[in-house]
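step 3/5: co-fold with 4-methylsulfanyl-2-ureido-butyric acid
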Amino acid sequence: MTRKIKVAAAQLGPISREESRSSAVNRMISLMREAKKKDANFIVYPELALTTFFPRWYFEKQSEIDKFFEKEMPNEATQPLFEEAYKLKMGFNIGYAELQIEDGIHHHYNTAILVEKTGKIVGKYRKIHLPGHEEFEPWRPFQHLEKRYFETGNLGFKVHQALGGKIGMCICNDRRWPETFRVLGLQGAELIALGYNTPVHYPLAPEHDHLQDFHNHLVLQSAAYQNGTWIVGVAKAGEEEKCDLIGGTCIIAPTGELVAECKTLGDELIVAECDLDRCKEIKENIFNFSLHREPQNYTLISAPK
Ligand code: CDT
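step 4/5: write tokens
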């Protein structure tokens, strides 16, 4: 059986505050059709792909915040995406804001799902590393209120048996933490999908603004190599509501090599054939975990903070 997945990374350009979910879904369907023409069978979309990146605004009323969240998935707005995927036999990964009501308590997560070619949701991940701040900070040119609007994900970093391989997920800021990838790597992840919304401007250290694209690829390429896995990183890019977001959507081989990369800051598709058996080149050699890891010397890493 072939262990090759033809992967498409579907970068989205900006989504304005006024843009409807249906419009965003239509843009994603166009990219899915383009992916099918290129023989892809798995497509990855960005973090919070259905709306603008709303944590850049401070909202007082919970009802205003909840407008950006999905109570169920699929729902009326996203059903056409699921139907198209089913029709085209295309697996996909997409990020969205999830409102889960459990025992009358409202939980808000920054979520991604993995959908098989059958249209069935086979994996869910809720973002663990939530960046930004909790309160309104007037000195900032734009807010980054993920810590206010989302709870820390409660599903851990899991690997899912899907698309003929071991698939992991994480979201945006998670990629900056080597622990994210090592936990997935320890479960044998062969392909990790992640979406991101990364502003060019980092108000706490603006002297690093020119390094944003470099840091993006730096963490993804090193994580792919150190864990012997394919990584598909997908941006929401371009100027969104006066906030510039980096692009740099990419597909990275287990050797750490960038095999495909977007060149624009708009809706753009890239495709690469990912042979999952190539993970062995790394997993069975330089990073053969069972032979070479020294976990007894790493205990500090997993100690509570
Ligand atoms: N979406 C997200 O996690 N963005 C962060 C921005 C930097 S921290 C304010 C990131 O790590 O790319």
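step 5/5: annotate
The longest strand covers residues 91-102.
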